[in-house]
Every structure is written in structure tokens, then in C-alpha cells.
Amino acid sequence: MTTDRLQRAFLADVPEEYLGQPNPTLETWFKTIDVWISTADREDAKAVLEGIPETKLSKAARSAGAVRTALNNSKMRGLYIGVPNKKAAEYNRVDWSTYQNMQWDAINADYQEMTKKGNQLAKMLEDATSIRISSPAGTDITMASGHRKAFVDAGILGERAKESGAFLGRQASLPGGTVVIAPIESSANGKVVAPKDTCRPYEYLTGATYVFKDGQMVSFNAKGNPECFEQDFAAYTGDKDRIASVQIGLNPASKVIEDGSEYRPGEAAGMVYIGLGNNQLLGGSNKTEFGWSAPVVKATVEVDGKTVVKDGRLAF
Q1: Which whole-number Å values give the CA distances from 263 to 74, 103, 139, 197, in the listed order?
Q2: Which residues of the chain have pLDDT under 70?
Q3: What residues does each domain of the chain span?
Q4: How far apart (Å, rounded) are the C-alpha atoms in residues 146 and 18?
Q5: What pTM was estimated for this model as a whole?
Q6: Residue 161: predicted pLDDT
């Protein structure tokens, strides 16, 4: 059990030299757990994080490496339940009734159908030589999957959940509905343009452009609040500037709302996110505690020339 007050005290009051220490009992503890059911660990992100320097957050994040290793080495199955949250609705600039109804509708969506679609898309991504993602805002980037495993989260843990290896193969979420893959880290070339994004859940970033060459981010700029990204990025070391992931949404009951809002749920059917930084839970090789996902709204995704997403809608 945890509370916002406890998390705030940990980040604000614990001396920095004690932050980031791994729990030595973690791996043994995880080996005794068969199923882990979780909900959000905070009610109000702003109450927990506001005013905490990024340098301190990055030190606290160092212990996450041990958690990832313990999860990957375990046989635990996990389920996360995204119970509707009033503060999340507020920060997404969506009225509470709309947000709550959509969240429950997405939780109660047809996961059998999503599983079928997700497995089809996962196989296409795994077999792909080339993946191209573009958008009307200016995104145009290509990358290669290298025949890596794609992970389907469609709310159901089937036979694949019995496999060992990367924890994400044994993890599901409600609402669910995503396919995610770690492309070859040196393969991405082009740019990602996100006209609207969030930095912390309660801070907004506008007109962001990320340029990649051979998988490395070589430039970043934004029209509004660029320091939100820059301060976060500067606080970390390691492979923080490497392409990490591509995620495509599958859930037909979840919708992107950008007209006066900031609601871009990753599970919304046809929604695309491109990640930077750590991807070890996906079987990737990036070693860093930094993680960032840029939204690509109204994306078109082509897999070896076949269009699987067209203008933000699934096309297969």
C-alpha cells in the first residue's frame, strides 16, 4: 500500500545518497508471487511530483533496473487496472463524466476481438523488414524490427503468459489494447513531430520535433515549454537518446480527444506512440532509466509497404 503523501515524503525528504538503492530481497520476493494485480500508485501526480528536481527523480529511478531484472527473471503474471481518476481527467482536460464513461467502456471492450487483431499485427511487425510511420503534422520515420518479439496487451493472458523471458509477455492492462515492439536501436531514421504532448501529467509540451539518425536522437526542439523535456533528458545518462519502442493501439472504445483537450490514450485504436530510452522489458538493449513516449496522432503505419494504420485508424 502507498499514498501520495508517502511518495511525496520519499522524494522530498529522503537524503539523496539513499535514493536509488535496490531492494536486496526483491528477486526472492518476486519468485514467491504467482499473480500481481495492481492499480495506480498515486491519485494526484502533481501533489507527488511538483517542485521535485529532475536530478533527484533520476536518482530515485536507479532502483528500477533491479525491478526490471527481477520481473524478467520471474514467472509472475501481472494485471494493471486503470480505475478512472478525477485528477487524470482534469490534467487531460476532459470533463469527468466523459472521461469516466470512456474509461469504463474501454475496460469492458471486446478483448477476444482485440487479441485476434493484436496477434495479426504482432506477426506483421515481427516479420517486417521495414516499418514506416508518418503523419499530417510532419512525422516521417523508418525503422526495422529485426524480427524481435512484439507484445500484445489485449486484456487477456493466454498461452503466451506461461512463457518465461520479458515480463511484458505476462502482463495485461484494463483498459487494454496495444501492440508494442522494440525496433533495432540503430535502425531509426527520420523525424517525429508531436504538435501536442504532455511532459509530466500536469505540464504541456507543444510543437515538439525529434530527429533521429541511425537510431539516435540528434536534435530536439519545441515551440512551447521545451525545457520540460530538456530538463528531464539532461538528468539521465546511458542510452537515453536511442529509439526504444513503437506502440499501436487496438481498443475501439478508447478515443483520442484533442479539440481543447489533451487526451491521447495509448490503447485507442490506431493511436501510435514512439518511445525513447529504456526498453529492457521489451527485450531491447537500451540501458538507461530515462523513458519518453511521443504521441503520433492521425498516424499512417506501413509494414513492408502494407498499410496497417491509415490516418489514425486500423486498416487491416
Answers
A1: 34, 11, 19, 9
A2: 158-164
A3: 4-314
A4: 39
A5: 0.93
A6: 66
Residue 134 is predicted with a pLDDT of: 98
Cell numbers describing residue 189: 531514421
Rounded to whole angstroms, the Cα distance separating 152 from 69 reads 20
What was the pLDDT predicted at 51?
95
Place of cell 539513499: 18
Which of 209, 187, 213 minimizes the C-alpha distance to 131?
Answer: 187
Amino acid at 264: R
Cell output for 134:
508518418
Taking the C-alpha atoms of residue 247 and residue 313, their distance in angstroms, rounded to an integer, is 14
pLDDT at 163: 62
Rounded CA separation 140/130 (Å): 13
Concatenated DSSP letters of 22-79: --TTHHHHHHT-SEEEE--S-S-HHHHHTT--HHHHHHHGGGHHHHHHHHHHS--EEE
What is the C-alpha to C-alpha distance for residues 310 and 299, in angstroms, rounded to an integer?
Answer: 6
102 φ/ψ sector (left φ>0, alpha ψ -120 to 50, else beta)? alpha
Cβ contacts of residue 11 below 8 Å, gap of 6+? 48, 49, 52, 56, 57, 60
